[in-house]
Amino acid sequence: MSYLAHERSLSANTVKAYGGDVADLNDFAATHGVQRADDLTLAVLRDWLWRSAEAGLTKTTLARRAASARAYTAWMRRTGVTAGDAGVRLKSPKPDRSLPRVVTEAGMTQILDGLATRAHSGDVGSIRDLAIVELLYASGMRVSELVSLDVAALDLARNTAAVVGKGNKERMVPFGVPAAQAVSRYLAVRPTLVTERSGTAVFLGARGSRLGTRAVYELVTTLLSSVPGSGPAGPHALRHTAATHLLDGGADLRVVQELLGHASLGTTQIYTHVSMERLEASYRQAHPRA
Fold it and tell me: Where are the domains of the chain?
């Protein structure tokens, strides 16, 4: 767990998930004749995955479990716990690829106009909520990156923010004028929320401490419930929406990859499928001989 967190710089959620997988693997191995680390074989690993599939785990979870097992056996080999690496040939089942939820431009306008109306009252929480949603949609940043923002990370002269993403990799993300205006307005009233627990956090809760991901999740989920669409309704839907709207508007795929902080272009390419589905749906609806 320490290796995953400090040497591979995986996120806390990933470390926790891998740790749970490895604990389950160890329990399974102990009841299937594995008394020493070197007794762990590829056959045992495959049997563990098969039993996991029989228990009804999704392909996505099974793929993560396979990755956990490979990381575990590679670590044991590297540190001299085992002579070989039993998991090096363990294959991951291909996860089911479901397309992410994307909010239409009209839907985003409806959400943002509603937030702006609430913020017009002068309520500090409403002003903050508008800044949060404008920034998420404008930049495509992850919710964890948003709540981790410090005031010094914002450059309102250039409309950019320095965010720290997965693997502790820092990148600069731009945002537009509406987001900059919403953030500037929030920063002007932020002092009313500040307490001794606030530190340098940009977004603060009602008690003055750094706003958590759960609060942002609840905000976005409530907002998305009022617009058409199916699928997950958390903050990641705004990230998906930003990426898809950029590609629909003609942005280069590699530029979107850089903006989102994806290590692999393949991860970004799912948004081309989203855009193609939207194109095909529009074609079927509009063309008389579709």
Answer: 2-78, 105-285
